[in-house]
Amino acid sequence: MSHIQWLGIWGMTGFSKPEEKDLNKWTKGIAYVLGDPKGQHHFKEFLSRPGCDFEKHTQILELWVRCDALINQAESVNQSEAQEIFSKAQQYLHMTPRVVSDLQVVSESQDGAQIKEEVKKVQEVASNNLIDVYNTFTVSLQTLRSQKKLKCLIL
Questions:
Q1: FRET pair for 59, CA 20 to 30 Å: which of 48, 75, 87, 89?
Q2: What sign results for the dihedral spanned by CA atoms 129, 133, 137, 138?
Q3: Does domain 3-154 have CATH number 1.10.167.10?
Q4: Which candidate, 104, 109, 135, places its Cα nearest to that of 122?
Q5: InterPro entries recorded for this chain (predicted)?
């Protein structure tokens, strides 16, 4: 899929095409992409492009989003959601045996604060697991920026 076709898909999703300020922000670091719903959406679209083998990364991004939702929920921690997050983390993330052991202990805990702390750790590992593909994403953003500048020169 070309970058032009990719832009066409963006127009059909309810999110606008990235503006220059979005591109500038998203290329500062992965936290800027993950901390922005529009950035998350465009990153997920990038990962879902036909012909690319980013399925595992798409799952990791979805895991990151689920972690974020659980961390930021005001009410008590949904223990089954936490257990599901821990299960997905073990399936998709590169984690040390110590972290896996901690997750197993905490998954049976009733302590919401302790569960949220472990979910934050999972979220950080998920973010780190996305860095390589994030770098590829930023290259595509730079290409997009160059195409926008060229289009302005042609007009």
A1: 75
A2: positive
A3: yes
A4: 104
A5: RGS_sf (IPR036305), RGS_subdomain_2 (IPR044926)
